[in-house]
Amino acid sequence: MVLKRHASSLESPFKRTSVRPRLPSRCPLCSYSTRMPREPKTIAIFGGGISGLSSAYFIAKRFPNTKITIYEAKERLGGWMQSQRVVLNKDSLNGQRILLEYGPRTLRTGILTLPTLQLIDDLGLLDDVRTTSREAAASQSRYILYPRNLVRLPSPGPPDFLLLWHLWVSGLLKGIPTLLMEPFRKGRPEDQRDKDESIADFVARRLGRDYRVADNLVSAVIHGIYAGDIYKLSAKAILPQIWHLERYYGSVLEGLARLRVGVKELTDRGIFCTALSRYDWDTINHMMRDMDLDLRVLERLSVRETATYTFKEGLQQLVTRLEDELRRKENVEILTQTRVSDYHLNANNQLEVTSSSKTSNGRNRTFDFAVSTLPNPSVAPAVTVMTVNLYYTNPQAIEKWRLGYTDREKSDGFGYLIPRSVDLKENPERALGVVFDHDATQNLDQVRGTKLTVMLGGHWWDGWREFPDEKEGETMAKSIVKRHLGITEEPDLCHVSLHENCIPQYTVGYEDRVRSEGSRLADLYKGRLWVTGNHYNGVGVNDCIRGAYLLAQDMENGGWLDDNHRIGLRKFYDSGEWFMGPNQFALERTLFGSELPKYELASLGQ
């Protein structure tokens, strides 16, 4: 990794270093690097969300002479990432503004988010970053509604026995004692070691067919990330580490204990281990070697210090800056309000793309290569989520006793999630959870108030022909915060957003479907069409950016003309063996040169 330095105070303790990469002949990401093909003359990118924009940016860096055209059906770019400054009309506030997020609101730190950090560095966004530390209330205080009260979850660090007692009394931990018997239960039969199953079935099977932990705890967490149904979502795709620990050791707890013991060469240096696939290890190695980052970015967004972050003008600021950068490039063309209606391979082995817009219908253009970031329901169906932003100028709108304390000045925390086990009387609106934005993302507004986002729908709305309108959404959101948080006053501001088919669902059999679809696309388009996006790389913003970065890297290293180059889906074909390796805290220290650049790995199951 090339680390850029700007201050003399940083120079002496840091040195340039990188994790020693594997030999090219054994490393999937560089196994074709000896053959560098010519650049494509033209590339089409379908979709102008964060995956499409990131793909265009990273491809343009690697193929600066290639003409890139982005097709986006809507008027604006960025997909579900949308932030807006709103003026408060209340006389006493004199037109002060607050920031509302209608989609995702924060990004997490971690070693696999290096491509996002590269974007932040390249686009000059570091000074606009707003962080939430690991010690902040939003990182430490998170709640689950059960059965009708908000129950605070333990935070990392020394155990709080009074909190654990309250958790036990609440009933939220019903079924947890069965965890003690987990190591003594049989693992999957040998002939079913690779068989997928739902998250609910996986957790319950490891707990003696007891579904209470899955229904009370796991479903709440999954509601917050996927808005999905744990009885349908794939354990293998969404919980790959614990799924593979059971696969190799027959028990999740046994596997975690083995990780604790770790690899001697690592534990002797005080490094805790984690489970990771060969593909993930190679990906980390290559990202660390390939990045060109300012040290200040790594310091500011260190996983050890920072839990989450956003930008001064919200996450859309990343989209806006990325769009501005692409529009400045002479080799990039952005077509908004232009829908791709058809694409096929012509007799010259070029992709012929048909698009329509308000000004033209049936316009045809040919490209050497294309990247699709469009949804693919045959791989992963998607759920619809409604978000309702509520703002109260009263900073004490939430009744503090409902959060377990009486100090009116105490921070509220991140918010709460609602598990599937909560009675419909407590959640008739089918809410997924509520985020306390005034604490989750601080220092963004000109005035302090109570700012909430209510999340509704997800899998609860599967099969609905019609969804609530804005007025109904507002009514439901106000009903929820009145019932759960004791807020009876009218909000000073309300905004309702309906995000149809916004979060892909990696249901049971997902990985097999992706491989099948990958083979179909490779055969049909002869390697000229690759895919990326949240249907393939993970549902988070960081996942989408990393997927775009790796796709561009794969295009350059392996050759965009290679029919068998996995069309952007290499991880589904080349995941390989699983290992014990250094965790992300140790790998991050490597970036600063305080650790040796070589690590020993040990295969799981040994």
Write a concise synopsis of the structure shown.
Residues 50-554 form the Amine oxidase domain. With 606 residues, this protein is of the alpha/beta class.
Side-by-side strand order of the widest sheet:
9-8-19-20-21-18-22
CATH architectural designation of one domain: 3-Layer(bba) Sandwich
Portion in strands: 15-25%
**Per the principal axes of the C-alpha atoms, what is the gross shape?**
globular
Q: Class of one domain in CATH?
A: Alpha Beta
The counted number of beta strands is 25
- Give the count of helical stretches: 19
User: What is the terminal-to-terminal distance?
Assistant: 32 Å
Q: Strand pairing plus helix content: what structural class?
A: alpha/beta
| Arithmetic mean of pLDDT | 89
Pathway: Porphyrin-containing compound metabolism; protoporphyrin-IX biosynthesis; protoporphyrin-IX from protoporphyrinogen-IX: step 1/1
Cofactor: FAD
Function: Catalyzes the 6-electron oxidation of protoporphyrinogen-IX to form protoporphyrin-IX.
Keywords: FAD, Flavoprotein, Heme biosynthesis, Oxidoreductase, Porphyrin biosynthesis
